[in-house]
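pls design
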């Protein structure tokens, strides 16, 4: 029996959190669900909230992780972020819809973090 996609996703979300924590981000919540979809990670750094989609690719056979972020996914992430902001009031100066792509090269993980996917 193989490992399911959800288990793989959770593993790489954990790797993304560890990487981002080393860069000064702090995890607020993980796997935040709304009617518009799921936000993998919600983090904070310097009073800015980051809503992060995490994508792992073991190869580029089906495209790079960046190519997995479609226009529809961006819009749904923005809707989910708005839902989170309305439901969770806090002292945030700004927010960002972000992306973390993870690939494996020579038995090491390579991280590709984009702070604002709408730029």
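designed seq:
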């Amino acid at each position: 029996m193989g490992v399911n996609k959800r288990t793989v996703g959770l593993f790489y979300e954990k790797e993304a959190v560890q990487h981002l924590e080393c860069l000064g981000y702090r995890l607020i919540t993980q796997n935040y669900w709304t009617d518009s979809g799921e936000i993998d990670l919600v983090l904070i750094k310097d009073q800015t909230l980051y809503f992060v989609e995490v994508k792992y690719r073991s190869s580029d056979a089906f495209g790079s992780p960046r190519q997995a972020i479609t226009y529809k996914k961006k819009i749904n992430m923005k809707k989910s972020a708005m839902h989170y902001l309305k439901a969770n009031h806090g002292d945030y100066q700004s927010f960002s819809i972000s992306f973390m792509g993870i690939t494996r090269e020579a038995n090491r993980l390579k991280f590709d973090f984009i702070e604002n996917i709408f730029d």
